[in-house]
Structure formats: C-alpha cells, structure tokens
Amino acid sequence: MTVTSSRVLLVPLLTLCQTIVVAQEPLVSRTEEVVEAEPVKRIAPPYPEDELRRGGEGWVAISFMVSETGEVTDAMIENSSGRHGLDRAALEAVRKWRYKPAMIYGRPVESSLDTVIYFTTGGDPLRPSHKVVQSYRDLQAAIAANDLAKADALLTKLRARQDRKIYEDAWLNWFESVYLAVTKGDAEEQREKLRAAIGFDKKRTYLDPETFVIGLARLFDLDIQAGDLGDALDAYERLTSDEAAQRADRYAAIQSNLEASVREIEQVVAGEGILSFRGRIGEHDFWVHRLVRRSFSIANIEGSLEDLSIRCPHRRVSFTPLTGEQTWTVPASYGTCHVFVKGGQGATFELYEFPDSSA
C-alpha cells in the first residue's frame, strides 16, 4: 500500500479563506493531571416493542460531551445498524446519563466521550441457525465463483430479513463490502460497509480474526484512497491494539505493510501541501473527521450546513453559521481533535487542512 499525494493541494492559503478565526487559548497544558469523567447514572434504553416483535437486533454508536456539571450534552449518532427505532431509543437514553465530570487539578472541565449500545434478544449471538449459516455460505460461494447475479439475489434476500441478529448483520456488511469490491462499486459505500462489519466498539468484533485483519487492511487502503488520513491512522491503531487480531495468521505481514504506509502518512502530514477532504452529510445529519493538523477551513459548500464543532478530549468549541470563509486553528495542547459538521442530508463541502507552518 502506497500513500499517494493525489489529495494534497499546493495552493495559496488566502485563496481559500479570507477571515481567520483562531480557537481560544487552552485552559491547561498537556503536563497537568487529568481525571477522566466517571459514570454515575447510566441506564440501558428500553427495547422498542415494534423492533422486539420483529426479532431483529442492532447497535448504535453515539458521541457526546459531558459538561462541567456531569450532564450529557450534544449527543449525536455517528453510525448505527440502521434500525431507526433503536437509534431513537439509544439517543434518548444517553441524554439522560449522568457523570462525575472530568477534572484537571480539581477543576471540572468538559470532556468528549463515545459509546456503543447493543440491542440483543438473548441467546448466543455466535451460534446462528443452520439455515442462516447456509445462506451466508451460499453467498460466499457465489461471490467467489463470480456468479454476481446469484450473489445479488442472495444479498437482496438477506437485507430484507427483519430478524437479523448483530452477528449476522456484521457478516452481511462484510459480504456487501466484498461484493462492492468485486463489482467495482462506490468506494465510499465500501468504506461504510466495512466500518459496520468491523464495528465501532474497540473491545468487540463479530468477525473472525483473519477476516477482521483483512477488513482493517482494506479499510486502511480505502481511507487513504479517500484522502482521509486520520481514519487510516485509526484503522491502524485498531489493528495493533486488538489482541484477537494479533492471533491471526496474516497479522504480522499485514501489520508490517501498514506500518510502512503509516510512515508515509506521517511524512505527508508533516509536509507543506494542503490536505483536501470531501465531506458529505449522511443519514444521521453529521459528518465526522479526525484532524491530523492544527489548522483547517471549509469551502465549496453545496447544500445546507448548520454548525461546526471541534471536539477534543477536554475541550469543545462550536461555531455557527458556516460561511466557508473561516479558518480554525486548534492549539496543540487540545490533543487529538475531531470536527463534527451538522447539516442537511446530502450536503457536500471541502475541508482543507493547512501545514503547521501556516498556523
């Protein structure tokens, strides 16, 4: 895997933005002691009756802030298995959670957290019925034989099932990503299917170790192709921190290959080119991006964007409206930060990250 510079732009800074907005100075330095937020009240959401009757399971990945008083604010769905009833139940429950706020030298501060909520109907999720197993084996065989008509028919049938379990859902997303790769389908859709197959809970995956490491390697490659270097680094970190993945036969070879690409990413990030990323608001009304540099701007907005927030481990800054004429500079002491852009579904824009020398 080679990191290309096709998404690196060498253009004058001021042709992109005229107004510079600099984030306020940090409250603390990186050397100060931090006590992370601790849960005080975290009740599981009730299983919606209509979803329970269907017998289906699902998961919801949620990002949120914990205020200085321990309340949950700005909770949003980053991704989910797509069952809207479960999405609503999970979001309503998280908004009621309470925490002991994060502290820095005894002073309460905001903190950014995330969670994955699972809705299960009971039983062993790793022991699907013989009929289900056979369906997925038939799908795998059809894709391997390049019988795309049969594979498409099987995928359509599996998607239509309302009683899919989480385990089955993970494998369905995996095979959909493989099908898209074989048919040279949309690369962004492949990324979404792979993310859902791998899962957003770093302590859990429903794929076997061999498939898991292959999936992460493929996701890493697609992230680079999309120019999303932050997500590529996240995929590599997930690979190297997962104990189950390290037991896979292909782990050493894949890890070594990706490590070489990570070194190239670091060189690109440290370079003088402007990094360009294409953003699109999805079904959950948000677009999330991990920053790899400190300064960025948004331009070429098509559609409606409502607001932008910069979420860091112990700081959040929000801005509205978005005019496409601002540059934000985040102090290094804020740590690894993510940009959350809220807007109308389907809205698109470009995000540019500038070299540190221009900050």
Query: Which sequence of strands runs across the widest sheet?
Result: 1-11-18-13-16-2
Number of DSSP-assigned strands? 18
Order of helices and strands: EEEEHEEHEEEEHHHHHHHEEEEEEEE
The major pleated sheet works out as: 6 strands, mixed
Number of helices: 9
- What form results from the Cα inertia axes? globular
Radius of gyration: 21 Å
Portion in helices: 25-40%
Structural class: alpha+beta
End-to-end CA span = 31 Å
If you had to describe this structure to a student in words, what would you say it looks like?
This protein is an alpha+beta fold and 359 residues long. Helices cover 35% and strands 27% of the residues. The chain has nine helices and 18 strands. The chain has helices spanning 49-54, 84-94, 130-144, 148-160, 166-182, 187-198, 209-225, 229-241, 251-270; strands spanning 8-9, 19-22, 34-35, 38-41, 58-66, 72-80, 98-100, 102-104, 107-109, 111-119, 274-280, 286-290, 295-302, 305-312, 315-319, 326-329, 338-343, 348-354. The strands form five sheets. It has a six-stranded mixed beta sheet, with no helix packed on it. Strands 12-17-14-15 form a four-stranded antiparallel beta sheet.
Reconstruct the topology from this structure.
Layout: E1 8-9, E2 19-22, E3 34-35, E4 38-41, H1 49-54, E5 58-66, E6 72-80, H2 84-94, E7 98-100, E8 102-104, E9 107-109, E10 111-119, H3 130-144, H4 148-160, H5 166-182, H6 187-198, H7 209-225, H8 229-241, H9 251-270, E11 274-280, E12 286-290, E13 295-302, E14 305-312, E15 315-319, E16 326-329, E17 338-343, E18 348-354
Parallel strand pairs: 2-16
Antiparallel strand pairs: 1-11, 3-8, 4-7, 5-6, 5-10, 8-9, 11-18, 12-17, 13-16, 13-18, 14-15, 14-17
Helix pairs in contact: 3-4, 3-5, 4-5, 5-6, 6-7, 7-8, 7-9, 8-9
